[in-house]
Amino acid sequence: MRRYLLVYITLACLLDPTSVAFSQDTAGDYPQWRGINRDGAAAAFVTPLAWPDQLTQQWRVETGLGYATPILIGDRVFTFGRQNQAEVVMALNARNGMVVWRTAYDAPYRDNPGTSRHGPGPKSTPLFHNGKLYTLGINGVVSALTASSGRLLWQKPAQSAEPLYATALSPIADQGKVIFHLGGHDNGALTAFDADSGDEIWRWDGDGPAYASPMVAKLDGVRQVVAVTQENIVGVKADDGTLLWRIPFSSRSTNNSITPIITGQEVIVTGHNLGVTRFKPHRVAGRWTTDIIWTTSEVSMFMSNPVLADGTLYGMSHLRSGQFFALDAASGNTLWRTEGRESTNSAVVMAGDLLFLLNNDADLVVAQMSRNGFTQVSRYEVAPSATWAQPTISGNRLFIKDESNVTLWTIE
Fold this sequence. Notes:
The protein is mainly β.
C-alpha cells in the first residue's frame, strides 16, 4: 500500500487565540456541494436596497489549482486545491482571509490526453459534517480531517483506476456515514464509510462512477442514495447499499456531471446531449419500478447544474453555445431560452427571487427569477482567471474560486 506524506501545519493558536466551536448547518453556513440542502441555494442571502456599480473586494488568497467550491462554517472558509504535487486543505479566517491551518498530502497526478485541458484538480468540493471535513482527491484519495485544526483522522489511498476525466463528484453524509463513488469505469464502487473511523460499511459495485454528486432522499418510504453512474441512474438503500432500481442513462462517452434534483417523490436528471427527464421511483406489488413523468430535448446540460424554484427549473443549456433557460417543472415545457453564446459553463445559485449565474469567464450575472423571460439585474467581473467552481454566497458575501485563488467580495 502506498504511503502518504502528510504535511500538517496549524496556526490557529497564533492567529486566533479563541477556541473555534463549529455548529452544524446554521443559517449562514455553506457546508457542502451546492449548500446545506445540495440544491444550489445561497445561505441567508440579503438583497441590497440598490445594486452597486461594483462589488467590494475584501481579500484574495492563493489556495491552489482546482474546481472545488469553498465551504463556509461560521467564521471559517475551507478550501481544497493543488499546490505543486500536493493536494492542500486550508482553513481561512472569513473576515480577513488569514490562514488558520493548512494540511497537505502528496498527490502526483496521473495525466492523460483526455484530461490535460481540464487541469490537475482537485474537482471535488469538501464536505463538512459533525465537526469534520471530508475530501476526495483527483486520484481518489479519501481524507477525513478535524475542522478545528486540520488534523488527519483517517485516509484511504488513491484508486488503482479512475474515471476518464478523473474524480469530480462531491461526497455526501447520511446518518453517521460518508458516501463516495470511487474507482474507474469498469471497477468502481459506490461506497459508504463510517464517518468517524473510516471503516467500510457497504459498497455497491454494479457500475462505475460518472462525475455527478449523489443525493440522499426518502422515496416511497425507503431512504436511498440516488446516483448517476457510467451507464445508469440508480437508487440504492442508504443503510446497506442494496440496489433498488436503475434507469439506463449512459455517460460512458460524455462527461455527465449534473447532480440529480429531488422534488417530493420524484427525480429530475439531465446530462450531456441527454436532455432533461423527470421520473418517479416507486414500488408496485413490492417491486421497484420507475415511471417517466416527462422528458425534453429542448435543453440539455453539460457541466452547469440547474436549480428548482417555485415549480420552475432554471439553468444553462449547453445547446447553441450556452443558453440560459426556464422550464416548467410540472410539464417539462420550455418557458423561455436566451439566444445563445452566453458562456461555456455557468454555475447557478438561487437567492430569494434572484439567480446568480457565474460564467466560466469570471463574469457574474445577477438575474431576476421569472417564468416570462430573462431579465438581467446587474453584472460584475469577479476574478482575474477562469471560474469553473460554484460560488459560495452567504449574506452579502460572495466567495469566488478562480483557477488558483479564493476571493471574498461583498455587496455594499
